[in-house]
Amino acid sequence: VTDISNSLYTVNDFTFTGSTLSETNAGTYTMGLTAAQFTNTNTNFDSVVFEVTDGSLVINPRNATLTSGDATKRYDGTALISTAVAQEGFVDGEGVTTTATGRQTNVGSSANTFTYTFNPGTLAGNYNISTVYGTLTVTEALTHTLTITYYDEEGNVVSTFEREYAEGTTYRVA
Predict the structure, then answer these.
(1) Pairing relation of β-strands 62-68 and 85-88?
(2) How far apart (Å, rounded) are the C-alpha atoms in residues 25 and 128?
(3) In angstroms, rounded to a whole number, what is the distance separating the alpha carbons of residues 56 and 111?
(4) Closest C-alpha to 80, from 49, 108, 54
(5) Is residue 120 helix, strand or coil?
(6) What is the rounded CA–CA span in Å between residue 89 and residue 75?
(7) Residues forming a β-bridge with 144
(8) Which of 28, 72, 148, 149 yields a CA-CA distance of 20 to 30 A from 35?
(9) In the predicted model, what is the mean pLDDT of residues 69-84?
(10) pLDDT tens-digit map of 32-50
């Protein structure tokens, strides 16, 4: 009700016999309102005319975000794979199943990509899906060993320092 021309007549003075919409999926739904669905119940007003403009119910898709994580490891010849994907924005009981497709074997970085399929009961049209890819990073392997040995004046070993390092790593000893 947007307008009643007489201030003595209120929303309590008529009934609505139409049906209500119970839609839950994203889309646009016609309300189907007609003047015949409204009945005057106030006997003080005998010539009530209902002017009805039909409308529609619009349910917009929800925004949902899928985010894969970052992962790092040293080079060992095997692929770095991270399967964790966070899901935000889904209605309780709905969501997707993800499959990791990102892999990084050699030294360097790449996107932690994945694919997804909607779970049973989750309608694709109800969601605007955004994907955020983390980064997979493989660093240089620890392939070299640096050993520093300290001797006293008689030539006895006082202490030894040993550290593994990757090619191209610079260490400064002070």
Answers:
(1) antiparallel
(2) 13
(3) 43
(4) 108
(5) coil
(6) 36
(7) 165
(8) 28
(9) 95
(10) 999 999 999 999 998 899 9
